[in-house]
Design brief:
This protein is α/β, with parallel strands linked by helices. The chain contains 8 helices and 8 strands. Bound molecules: D-xylitol-5-phosphate and zinc ion. D-xylitol-5-phosphate (DX5) binds next to strand 2, strand 8 and helix 7.
Length: about 220
């Protein structure tokens, strides 16, 4: 079954905890939390204290997407905040392999992400270590952008690579996901759909999530 990880970037931030509860009630599998530092991306969003504050609002895995430079510096903070999956970017400054090791040492699942302009060959060194690969289908920084086609062949490559090498990482896709692009990514081999603006514009996202589960 395809998992759905709604991106809380499109939630109503004035009632963030309740929004997380609503997403859980809607049948979501994971909660996608977008952390931005104003350096790796031009935008600033939430950090570890907010994640810690809403940890009690849901029992779903917290799928934390770190769009930050030198992420190794913050792995302990996000571990203590209650993250379950921590995803770092291959383009970020610092020791990315070390960050992945530290995430595992802390007992969490580790993900590697790549931007639309980054070739998938840049992340093959991480593939036998990670639990998740997060394929960006928009330039990270903002919700509500259109899906970029470069993601589809990357997903196909990652699916084939996993099958050929006996690897079991999840393939998640993030950016511009709607019913149409989500189905195409699932057909290409994605196992997780991270979607923000498309799901949050619905009063009730549960029928859509149920539909996506069947992709
Ligand atoms: C973008 C974030 C995404 C974003 C997706 O930098 O990583 O998770 O919230 O938003 P939509 O689904 O609106 O493209
Ligand atoms: Zn994200």
């Amino acid at each position: 079954m395809v998992k759905v990880s709604p991106s809380m970037l499109s939630a109503n931030f004035s009632k963030f905890g309740e929004e997380i509860e609503r997403v859980e009630r809607s049948g979501a599998d994971w909660i996608h939390l977008d952390v931005m530092d104003g350096m790796f991306v031009p935008n600033i969003t939430i950090g570890a204290p907010i994640i810690k504050a809403v940890r009690k609002n849901s029992e779903l895995p917290f799928d934390v997407h770190l769009m930050i430079e030198d992420p190794i510096r913050y792995i302990d903070d996000f571990t203590k905040a209650g993250a379950d999956i921590l995803t770092v970017h291959t383009e970020a400054k610092g020791d990315i392999m070390g960050a992945i090791d530290k995430i595992h040492e802390n007992g969490l699942k580790a993900g590697i992400s790549l931007n639309p302009g980054t070739p998938v060959s840049d992340i093959t060194i991480y593939l036998n270590k990670v639990d998740l690969v997060l394929v960006m289908t928009v330039q990270p920084g903002f919700g509500g952008q259109s899906f970029r086609e470069e993601g589809i062949p990357k997903i196909e490559f990652l699916r084939r690579y996993a099958d050929e090498n006996g690897l079991r990482y999840d393939i998640s896709v993030d950016g511009g996901i709607n019913r149409n692009t989500g189905k195409r990514c699932a057909d290409a081999g994605a196992t997780v759909l991270a979607a923000g603006s498309y799901l949050f514009k619905m009063d009730d996202m549960s029928p859509e999530i149920e539909l996506w589960h069947g992709f």
